[in-house]
Amino acid sequence: MNNGLKKKTPSKKVESVMIYMSKAERSALKAFAKQNNLFITQVAREGIKIRMSGNDYNHGFNDGLNEAIKIVNNTDGAKMMFPSGKSFAKLVTDEIEKFTRVDEVITDEIEKFIRVDKESP
How does pLDDT run across 65-79, given as a tens digit for each residue? Predict the structure, then answer.
């Protein structure tokens, strides 16, 4: 016997959460989990933890862009000036900055995806 104490099973250590996603999102999630030899629930838990940590994808993506801008600005060949008065580095970094992500951009992309998914048969 166990002295009248209930034994904790894994199902009693965690709680369930239900999420809704499109068929396309679920298919992509299943494929990703299978490709990486993970459980779908593990992928979901990790994604939620990352999002809640404040160290989200956008932050890391933007950090990468900022590093690319530093590299361009520190490259001697990129310091060449055009007749317009702009340097090659400035032209390139202006283009890189267009890719900077903000939460509103991601929200817009998600909304587009949802609209497309609703329109598909």
Answer: 999 999 999 999 998
